[in-house]
Amino acid sequence: MEQHKSDNNELLKIRHSCEHILMEAMEKLYPGIIKASGPATEDGFYFDFELPERLRVSEADFPVIEQEMQHIIDKNHSFQRKEMSLAEARHLFENNVYKQEWLDEIEKKNSIPSVYWTGTHDNAYYDLCAGPHVEHTREIKAFKLLSIAGAYWRGNSNNKMLVRLYGTAFKTQKELKHYLFNREEAKKRDHRKLGKELGLFTFSPDLVGQGLPLWLPKGTILRDELEGWARRVEAEHGYQRVVTPIIGKEALYKCSGHLAYFKEDMYAPITIDDERYYLRPMNCPHHHQIYKSDKRSYRDLPFRIAEYGNAFRYEASGALSGLMRTRGFCQNDAHIYCRVDQAEEEFANVLRLYLYYFKILGIQDYYLRLSKPDLSQGDKYINNPEQWEKALIIVRKAMQQVDFPFVEVDGEAAFYGPKVDVQIKSAIGTEYTISTNQLDFLTSERFDLNYVGEDGELHPVYVIHRAPLGSHERMIAYLIEHFAGAFPVWLSPTQAMIVSVSDKQVEYCTNIYKLLLQHGIRVELNLASETMSYKIRSAVIQKIPYIVIIGDHEATSQTVSIRDRKGAQKSNLSVDTFIQEMCKVIKSKSLELWD
């Protein structure tokens, strides 16, 4: 078993020890299993093992397994550690092929094997392990088995499929209950679950391919709303729209450096007329050709071009996860070509744009991460320390202008320059990069991107790569979980649902429906013969912001009654008042429903 790098973390010690208790319980309950490995993790622990033929374990068995684990814990055995020779360790685990493989690695590293055991010498449970552990089993106060799955040994699909049990442990029962509550909430908010229930997107892995989402009509509305908003904001900030192809010749990606530094993330080439083409992994090389299409003067800079461009990157099938990690995506991309004296202000303005977008979307739990190079990795970064330092100074000054906290990390920069990633934490507790802003000092040399200065001479440009709203795929996945599918009115695929009490109101309902459409309100009409409670429940399940209820009274008085998705109700509203309030809340991009 591998040693976790955070040895001093008490919680990890508890989880590591609990995983040992799980293995001991499994060996007692299921004689003949072969234990493989199982580390402590950030959220808990897991244990991989091989089951004898005809023996099955399921979540229905968890109560019995947990009972046996508690029985072992109650004995309050101590965790003992012993170092031994390779020969001794190989003899101890002579019937376990998985431990023998671990011992092969220990031998290659010229390390000394260690074993931890609990119990008495004549009835001890032991395992190959580097530790650390708690001192006694009763220090494990709160644990829970969570799920079961299949897992290839060492994550390699060519190896044997093992059984994996997941669990977690905490210092107290209160912390465990809090975690389990949040876990259930996370399941409710999972964008894959809600995306299916709300009819936003789907996949066709067998025919279209893995990691290639298909956007359904309602999901496409989300994309269109975000993209339309970004287009308007970018136009106000001096960006010009461009459109470029999703494919490029091999020479383009050799020139950009992607084939040298990014090839493993690209799709295999396509041969057309004896020439090799690649699906683009990024939009920037195409944008550079647009910059080069005309001579540029210092007066023309900064030159800002933007495109919601489709890109494709190879991701291992095991890494794909709904919309969060896909093989095809559409990015809120733009490139700013500027003079070096403009770079700091342009970079800062992009960061301000990020903060504006996030405020409107109600995104608060995030931080900025300045990613720097590790120049010892010569195959990953351009080895030009002077240029790197110059670019880092520009980026730091820009971030200080915005006055937003940030952290610095080594070895995460783009190959062509430093970048600022926005690290966000979703409503279900997952942290990931939602968008990025990069300063590129290399591209001008590779693509000969210049401008004519006041002195009449050619000077290289700096390029800022930016995508404040990231990709449609990842941003919408985040927003689904952030809002639990109950989007703000302006983003909601359906903003209002009109429901009739009976067939008598069909004509009036239809007239209101047409009127709302004329005012740009996305509305659906439900004239089905179901009960009113069923119609309302259906609209609430679909998380539609407003339900317009029309009965005899409303039809006679030419009014509407409104019920919002939270249950608040208003009666005897004029149709004009309802439309005005709807248009107002949509235009303001309010996060709240109107009172």
UniProtKB/TrEMBL annotation:
<dbReference type="GO" id="GO:0046872">
    <property type="term" value="F:metal ion binding"/>
</dbReference>
<dbReference type="InterPro" id="IPR036621">
    <property type="entry name" value="Anticodon-bd_dom_sf"/>
</dbReference>
<keyword id="KW-0648">Protein biosynthesis</keyword>
<keyword id="KW-0862">Zinc</keyword>
<feature type="binding site">
    <location>
        <position position="284"/>
    </location>
    <ligand>
        <name>Zn(2+)</name>
    </ligand>
</feature>
<dbReference type="GO" id="GO:0000049">
    <property type="term" value="F:tRNA binding"/>
</dbReference>
<dbReference type="InterPro" id="IPR018163">
    <property type="entry name" value="Thr/Ala-tRNA-synth_IIc_edit"/>
</dbReference>
<dbReference type="Pfam" id="PF03129">
    <property type="entry name" value="HGTP_anticodon"/>
</dbReference>
<dbReference type="InterPro" id="IPR033728">
    <property type="entry name" value="ThrRS_core"/>
</dbReference>
<comment type="subunit">
    <text>Homodimer.</text>
</comment>
<keyword id="KW-0436">Ligase</keyword>
<keyword id="KW-0694">RNA-binding</keyword>
<feature type="domain" description="Aminoacyl-transfer RNA synthetases class-II family profile">
    <location>
        <begin position="190"/>
        <end position="488"/>
    </location>
</feature>
<feature type="binding site">
    <location>
        <position position="335"/>
    </location>
    <ligand>
        <name>Zn(2+)</name>
    </ligand>
</feature>
<keyword id="KW-0820">tRNA-binding</keyword>
<dbReference type="GO" id="GO:0005524">
    <property type="term" value="F:ATP binding"/>
</dbReference>
<keyword id="KW-0963">Cytoplasm</keyword>
<keyword id="KW-0547">Nucleotide-binding</keyword>
<dbReference type="Pfam" id="PF00587">
    <property type="entry name" value="tRNA-synt_2b"/>
</dbReference>
<keyword id="KW-0030">Aminoacyl-tRNA synthetase</keyword>
<dbReference type="GO" id="GO:0004829">
    <property type="term" value="F:threonine-tRNA ligase activity"/>
</dbReference>
<feature type="binding site">
    <location>
        <position position="465"/>
    </location>
    <ligand>
        <name>Zn(2+)</name>
    </ligand>
</feature>
<dbReference type="InterPro" id="IPR012947">
    <property type="entry name" value="tRNA_SAD"/>
</dbReference>
<dbReference type="InterPro" id="IPR004154">
    <property type="entry name" value="Anticodon-bd"/>
</dbReference>
<dbReference type="GO" id="GO:0005737">
    <property type="term" value="C:cytoplasm"/>
</dbReference>
<dbReference type="InterPro" id="IPR045864">
    <property type="entry name" value="aa-tRNA-synth_II/BPL/LPL"/>
</dbReference>
<protein>
    <recommendedName>
        <fullName>Threonine--tRNA ligase</fullName>
        <ecNumber>6.1.1.3</ecNumber>
    </recommendedName>
</protein>
<comment type="similarity">
    <text>Belongs to the class-II aminoacyl-tRNA synthetase family.</text>
</comment>
<dbReference type="InterPro" id="IPR006195">
    <property type="entry name" value="aa-tRNA-synth_II"/>
</dbReference>
<dbReference type="Pfam" id="PF07973">
    <property type="entry name" value="tRNA_SAD"/>
</dbReference>
<dbReference type="GO" id="GO:0006435">
    <property type="term" value="P:threonyl-tRNA aminoacylation"/>
</dbReference>
<dbReference type="InterPro" id="IPR002314">
    <property type="entry name" value="aa-tRNA-synt_IIb"/>
</dbReference>
<dbReference type="InterPro" id="IPR047246">
    <property type="entry name" value="ThrRS_anticodon"/>
</dbReference>
<keyword id="KW-0479">Metal-binding</keyword>
<dbReference type="InterPro" id="IPR002320">
    <property type="entry name" value="Thr-tRNA-ligase_IIa"/>
</dbReference>
<keyword id="KW-0067">ATP-binding</keyword>
